[in-house]
Amino acid sequence: MVPIVGLADSIELGDRRELFVDDRLIESMEGLAFHLHEPRAEPMAAKSALPALYTTVILDDGLYRAYYRDYRTDYEGEFYDGNWGEVYAYAESDDGIHWRFPDLGLSSVESSKGRNVILTQDKDGRCHNFSPFLDRNPQADPAQRYKAIAGVHPTGGLYAYASPDGIHWERLQEDPILTMDDFAFDSHNVAFWCVVEKQYVCYFRSWDSQHGSLRTISRSYSEDFIHWSEPVSLDPNRPGEHLYTSNTQPYFRAPHIYIALPTRFMPDRGNSTDILFMAKRAGALSYTRLFEEAFIRPGRDPAHWGNRANYLALNVVPTGPDEISFYHRNGNRYTLRTDGFISLRAGANEGFWLSKPFNFDGNSLEINFSTSAAGRLQIEILDASDSPEDGEILFSSDWMTGDAIDQLVPWKVGSNLSDIAGKTIRIRVSMTEADLFAFRFR
Q1: Are residues 292 and 403 in the same domain?
Q2: pTM of the model
């Protein structure tokens, strides 16, 4: 059992949804274990699969927009970073499954999918690794509703772009916004407005020269998207492990939690790659890795064991009321249940977990859970005394059996938690043959 923390360490939970991507809220547990769920590869959409080389997928008001790297059809030169044959192309979808590649009429240059080109490479290769995002900053200029970063070290660093509509793009200034001395930025670098930190953050490729010259991840932040802080290396690598991309993003149902789906690169294994799962809290200077092993393996196809064969598009998006999707370079769409990355899992013998002290806002509790026909789950809300054994049970739920994404917890007595909102409490959850994915007071 983990020692009980003092009540002064109470966590301000508010009405945030919490996923079990780390152990921050867990005081102790017995008979339970974290379980990493395996994504399902869905059948490819015939003739409309999304190309996913350094791709970004953005869901904007019901329209899925995708941005990806391609090559102009008349290019016959070498394939080096920032070569003049690179183009950045656009696709869109109404369901996140079937994609169309519209003739945008912006350029006479054609990609492999037609005239869906939004950017062609300039002489300095400054739109290399183009990575856009929908700016959630409430103070953002409508003319810059979309923003992007692009570039690589030989071109001078990362450059800033903006667009009013996600189609027509302009570079914001001639000079790079981020530079580094070593060979940085050679990857799918990402940036976004953090609604929790209330600033722009950038996660980008850097090098860890202290542990064998490993590809790693650094972080910088900015209030205006132009002036950035001195980068800080986050060093999430294990010994000898290269992280080719970071794929760090705020999870759309819990934006204070960043998930990361980086490509792990194994140069001593024939340059093979796979996909990891990591997470971090907004503002944290380190990632949490509850699992060391791969999240997505290369699989049976020999082509997936080659260099640069395994990349995921940036951003996990909802593609149904109980489904989230992410996109692989090989054309597959992978799915999980909503919030379904990691669960607390109980087997046939009953287990339980006890939370650290926290306070919340709201009058009800909802959970994302699943049980077997024989399984069940119960939640108790305890007064947060110094010893949980002495804590008074304030609310106790009925035993629950079933499978739901946003299940309101039924209480044996009373139904409104507003009287204890703002007070320091704990919860204790008992489970048998069950998975608990997330919970939220609301």
Answers
A1: no
A2: 0.94
By DSSP bridging, strand 263-266 and strand 254-260 are unpaired
The per-residue DSSP string of 161-221 comes to: EEESSSSS-EES-SS-SB--SSS---S--EEEEETTTTEEEEEEEEEEGGGTSEEEEEEEE
Q: Which of 307, 337, 367 is the last residue of a domain?
A: 337
Tokens of 417: 């938690």
Per-residue pLDDT band for 122 (boundaries 50, 70, 90) equals: confident
Residue type, 286: S
Q: Please tell me whether residues 89 and 214 are part of one structural domain.
A: yes
Residues 182 and 285 in one domain: yes
- Contact between 382 and 393 under an 8 Å Cβ cutoff? The reply is yes
DSSP β-bridge partners for residue 147: 133, 162
Amino acid residing at 260: A
- Which pLDDT score, from 0 to 100, does residue 272 have? 96
Q: Is the pLDDT of residue 208 over 90?
A: no
Count of domains observed in the chain: 2
Task: Please check the confidence at residue 7 and state whether its pLDDT lies above 70.
Answer: no
State the Cα–Cα distance between residues 187 and 152, nearest whole angstrom: 8
Please name every residue paired with 194 in a beta bridge, in sequence order, or none if there are none: 199
Check pLDDT > 80 for residue 121: yes
End-to-end CA distance of the chain: 30
Residue 432 burial by Cβ neighbours in a 10 Å radius (0-12, 13-18, 19+):
buried
Assigned domain for 1 exists = no
| pLDDT at 413 > cutoff 80 | yes
Helix (H, G, I), strand (E, B) or coil at 412: coil
Buried b (16+ CB within 10 A) or exposed e, 295-327: bbebbeeeebbeeebbbbbbbbbebeebbbbbb
Number of helices followed by number of strands (H, E) in the chain: 0, 33
Q: What is the pLDDT of residues 246-277, one digit of tens each?
A: 999 999 999 999 999 999 999 999 999 999 99
% the chain with pLDDT above 70: 95
Together in a domain, 298 and 398: no
Question: Can you state the percent helix, strand and coil of the chain, rounding each to 5?
Answer: 5, 45, 50
Select from 121, 123, 189, 194 the least CA-distant residue to 158. 189
Q: 175: exposed, middle or buried (C-beta count within 10 Å: 0-12, 13-18, 19+)?
A: exposed
